[in-house]
Write a structure and sequence with these properties.
By secondary structure, this protein is of the alpha+beta class. The chain has 14 helices and 16 strands.
Length: about 475
């Protein structure tokens, strides 16, 4: 894969609406990782129409300003622009003739003419993610130092690259392959000397037994991006992504589908591939972690992510959003805990039959005009927030939880007392450190539960409580706010 989603790129070429290649417009197509994709045309497109109001009287009906697909060609490559919206148009006269037009593009495919954005036309997705090479910890690049007293420097060294085979696992209709790409060593002779280097990067290829649409593949992409974000405890941006056409699209001559179709779009988190990776000791786990196996892990992750999708989206979403109000983070962290509790098979406070009978008796005991109010107050037969939090803290290994949270009951009560005013209105605490502690510790409890569901060994979690920044900070705040009871 060669397309880099972290740098700005631009192309020039002709663009046209599907089925109208003879009415093309010249333009400049720009991809900016921070601002998305724009198309600046000399001329433009308009789906407005003249409407006859009366004999000899016509009026211009405004167009929708939106086109599902625009085709184009940059160099020799076919291009499909999807979900296009006109941002600005200018015209020097009356009528359809446009001088200039700016179009905002939702997604861009290079290497195919696609007529239907929702077509299930792709059989594979290949992605590169930040920190994936660190997570895929395989010793294929080794540095060797040989001490030799007879050598002028007393030592000599070399770097060897021993390519490894991909790791593969099949889960349901998906086959996931973790591979490595290698760039042969090269030498750059400069005026100040010779620099030689090699390059290795990991990638994921996900294959489906049934073709999928772009939106379906993006859901799959998110699933594995979230896995890396959870494992490395850092937002892992998409560095490149490409689709492989299914047989039907490949055989469609008008589509001109290439073997690799690059996908561009604006992502919430923009990558920085040149920055240092997350240190392995600070991550929750990598493939080097004892007790972590690629085949077992991926199978479990697909199940865990499906079962706890809402909790995953909320708690990992906090990793992608920078800044924001502390109260918003608190609400999100607690909501993630509630969602995780709801997805587990906990018994209700009382049998549902007893709850229904009790509710019916209470409603009969109040006047008719107060029954709706009481019905809303009684709500459903579910545990209180404090009970839900206590339940979650009791699930993972207690040695792990004790190192993270010495006083579960005090934390659960404080979280309930501070969350309710923020969520439902009331006097909000001015103690920022307390609110920060509630947010950090609740986030940590949800993360540890997810890691427990994945089967990450307790020894690694105990280690993470010291070396992982998120857990160690949460543990420090928990000891400060809710020390253990002697």
């Amino acid at each position: 894969m060669t397309e880099n989603l972290t740098v700005e790129q631009s192309w020039r070429g002709p663009f046209w609406l599907p089925g109208q290649p003879d009415r093309d417009q010249r333009g400049v197509l720009t991809y900016d990782p921070n601002n998305g994709i724009t198309l600046s045309l000399v001329g433009g497109f308009d789906d407005g129409r003249w409407a006859q109001l009366s004999p000899g009287e016509y009026a211009m009906r405004e167009g929708s300003g939106r086109f599902l697909v625009i085709h184009g060609r940059v160099g020799s490559k076919p291009v499909s622009l999807l979900d296009c919206r006109i941002m600005a148009s200018s015209s020097s006269g009356i009528g359809f003739e446009l001088d200039e037009q700016d179009v905002r593009v939702g997604r861009m495919l290079t290497g195919v003419f696609l007529d239907d954005p929702d077509a299930e036309a792709f059989s594979e997705l290949t992605i590169e993610l930040e920190n994936l090479t660190r997570w895929d910890h395989r010793e294929d690049v080794m540095s060797h130092i040989e001490y030799d007293p007879g050598h002028p420097r007393g030592e000599k060294w070399k770097v060897t690259v021993d390519p490894v085979a991909p790791l593969t696992v099949t889960v349901g209709d998906l086959t996931i392959e973790l591979g490595r790409r290698y760039v042969m060593p090269s030498g750059d002779m400069r005026r100040d000397g010779l620099e030689a280097s090699a390059f290795v990067a990991s990638y994921l290829t996900i294959m489906s037994s049934q073709p999928k649409s772009i939106s379906q593949w993006l859901e799959t992409e998110k699933q594995f991006q979230d896995l890396l974000t959870l494992a490395m405890d850092a937002p892992c941006a998409v560095l490149s992504e490409a689709l492989t056409p299914a047989e039907a699209l490949r055989n469609n001559e008008q589509a001109e589908a290439r073997d690799e179709i690059s996908l561009y779009m604006r992502h919430i988190n923009v990558g920085n591939p040149g920055a240092p990776s997350v240190e392995g000791r600070e991550a929750f786990f990598t493939l080097k972690t004892v007790g972590v196996d690629f085949h077992t892990l991926i199978t479990r992750w697909v199940s865990v992510n499906t079962s706890f999708r809402t909790a995953c989206d909320m708690i990992l979403g906090l990793r992608y959003v920078k800044g924001g109000y502390l109260q918003n983070h608190l609400i999100t962290a607690v909501a993630a805990a509630e969602a995780m509790h709801a997805a587990m098979d906990f018994d209700p406070p009382m049998p549902n039959s007893e709850f229904k009978a009790l509710k019916k008796s209470l409603l009969k005991a109040v006047p008719a005009d107060g029954r709706q109010w009481l019905r809303e107050k009684l709500g459903s037969n579910k545990c209180t927030l404090a009970r839900q939090l206590t339940d979650l803290a009791a699930i993972p290994n207690q040695e792990v939880m004790s190192s993270l949270l010495p006083n579960v009951k005090a934390w659960a009560e404080a979280t309930k007392n501070e969350r309710n005013p923020v969520a439902h209105g009331g006097d909000i605490s001015a103690d920022v450190r307390l609110l920060s502690a509630i947010t950090m510790v609740t986030t940590a409890v949800v993360l540890v539960n997810l890691l427990h569901q994945l089967g990450i060994p307790k020894e690694r979690l105990i280690f993470a409580a010291v070396d992982n920044p998120t857990l160690s900070r949460a543990a420090r705040l928990a000891r400060e706010q809710w020390p253990s009871v002697s």
